């Protein structure tokens, strides 16, 4: 029997309020050669009951249900799911979103076209726009990319400081999974790290058509809110730490100029005040957009 072509990776945590709508949207996918691989991150509500009931009703659709009782947090939970996966195409899934019926079909087709062009050994990632809604599915923004003013065609260097890829809107191939995971401890988020690796060593393809409802509520781990200036210093530390682990894992793959750029970002967390600002200017450690860089120099 031929293996399932798509595995949807779902990390749950106290998601009883949202899970039924998500699972219903998965059942309505026009492309049905998929299975769900689930890891629960230590839920204390009715999440497990909902999952076990769904498993009983759709046994052929559940590739696995990991119930180790540990609370690892979102990024490490998703990393465990990638490590447990086996399919050639993988898709991250958040418990509180609603997928449009064509999501799996559109992204799987786009990924296969990329593999035909670049080969299966190339790390490949496709990601789509999202419709932003509130907890009651009232419309907040028809385009998440416009809402956040994302430049989804950004150069690979920009991924060191600026992520435009949302995990629940992605599909990626086996080569990307093997290269990017398991997740390093100081990776900022699973989607941010995956996008960084694919941008530098493979291909990232944006799909402008929104493919899901991106629900915003008080319990979002990241969400759609614009970044706040008062957190910029902490994010600068995180960017720098992530650059350091990126360099440790992939330094031998980089040419001299690339190595120097990543090393410059990795060294940023060891500097403060005017020396940090001077370092940013000297090595051109810039984010997309003039205002973003003014804020970086003022508040980093």
Query: How many domain units?
Result: 2
Name of the CATH architecture of the largest domain: Alpha-Beta Complex
Strand adjacency order, main sheet: 3-2-1-4-9-6-10
The CATH class of the largest domain is identified as Alpha Beta
**Uncertain segments of ≥5 residues (pLDDT<50)?**
none
Determine the CATH topology of the largest domain. Answer: Spore Coat Polysaccharide Biosynthesis Protein SpsA, Chain A
Number of helices: 11
Please state the oligomeric state of the protein chains shown.
single chain
Share of β-strand residues? 15-25%
- The average pLDDT value, as a whole number, equals 91
What's the total count of β strands? Answer: 11
Order of helices and strands: EHEHEHEEHEEEHEHHEEHHHH
Q: Evaluate the radius of gyration.
A: 19 Å
Cα end-to-end separation: 55 Å
Give the fraction of residues assigned to helices: 40-55%
Helical/strand content category: alpha/beta
Shape: globular
The CATH homology group name of the largest domain = Spore Coat Polysaccharide Biosynthesis Protein SpsA, Chain A
Keywords: Transferase
Domain Glycosyltransferase 2-like: 8-117
InterPro entries: Glyco_trans_2-like, Nucleotide-diphossugar_trans
Protein name: Glycosyltransferase family 2 protein
Explain how this protein is built.
- This protein has 300 residues and is of the alpha/beta class.
- It has 2 domains: 6-216, Spore Coat Polysaccharide Biosynthesis Protein SpsA, Chain A (Alpha-Beta Complex); 229-299, no CATH class.
- 40% of the residues lie in helices and 18% in strands.
- It contains 11 helices and 11 strands.
- It has helices at residues 19-27, 47-57, 74-84, 103-118, 144-147, 174-180, 190-201, 232-250, 256-266, 273-283, 290-299; strands at 6-12, 34-40, 62-66, 89-94, 98-99, 124-128, 131-134, 139-141, 170-173, 203-207, 212-216.
- The strands form 2 sheets. A 7-stranded mixed sheet has the order 3-2-1-4-9-6-10, sandwiched between helices. The protein has a 4-stranded mixed sheet with strand order 5-11-7-8.
- Helix 1 (19-27) links the parallel strand 1 (6-12) and strand 2 (34-40).
- Helix 6 (174-180) crosses helix 7 and helix 8 packs antiparallel against helix 9.
- The chain is globular, with a radius of gyration of 19 Å.
- The N and C termini lie far apart (55 Å).
């Amino acid at each position: 029997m031929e293996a399932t072509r798509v595995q949807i990776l779902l990390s749950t945590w106290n998601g009883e309020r949202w899970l039924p709508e998500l699972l219903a949207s998965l059942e309505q996918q026009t492309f049905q050669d998929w299975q769900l691989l689930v890891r629960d991150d230590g839920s204390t509500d009715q999440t497990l009951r909902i999952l076990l009931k769904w498993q009983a009703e759709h046994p052929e659709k559940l590739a696995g249900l990991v119930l180790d009782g540990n609370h690892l947090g979102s990024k490490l939970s998703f990393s465990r799911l990638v490590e447990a996966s086996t399919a050639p195409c993988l898709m991250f899934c958040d418990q509180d979103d609603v997928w449009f019926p064509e999501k799996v079909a559109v992204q799987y087709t786009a990924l296969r076209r990329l593999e035909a062009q670049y080969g299966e050994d190339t790390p490949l990632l496709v990601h789509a726009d999202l419709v932003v809604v509130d907890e009651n599915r009232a419309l907040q923004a028809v385009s998440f990319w416009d809402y956040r003013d994302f430049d989804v065609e950004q150069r690979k260097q920009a991924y060191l400081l600026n992520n435009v890829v949302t995990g629940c809107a992605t599909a990626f191939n086996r080569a990307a999974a093997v290269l990017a995971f398991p997740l390093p401890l100081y990776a900022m988020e699973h989607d941010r790290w995956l996008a960084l690796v694919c941008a530098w060593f493979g291909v990232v393809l944006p799909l402008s058509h929104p493919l899901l409802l991106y629900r915003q509520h008080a319990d979002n781990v990241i969400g759609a809110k614009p970044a706040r200036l008062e957190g910029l210093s902490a994010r600068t530390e995180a960017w720098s730490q992530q650059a350091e682990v990126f360099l440790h894992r992939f330094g031998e793959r980089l040419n001299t100029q690339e190595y120097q750029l990543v090393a410059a970002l990795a060294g940023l967390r060891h500097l403060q005040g005017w020396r940090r600002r001077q370092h940013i200017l000297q090595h051109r450690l810039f984010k997309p957009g003039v205002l973003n860089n003014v804020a970086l120099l003022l508040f980093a």
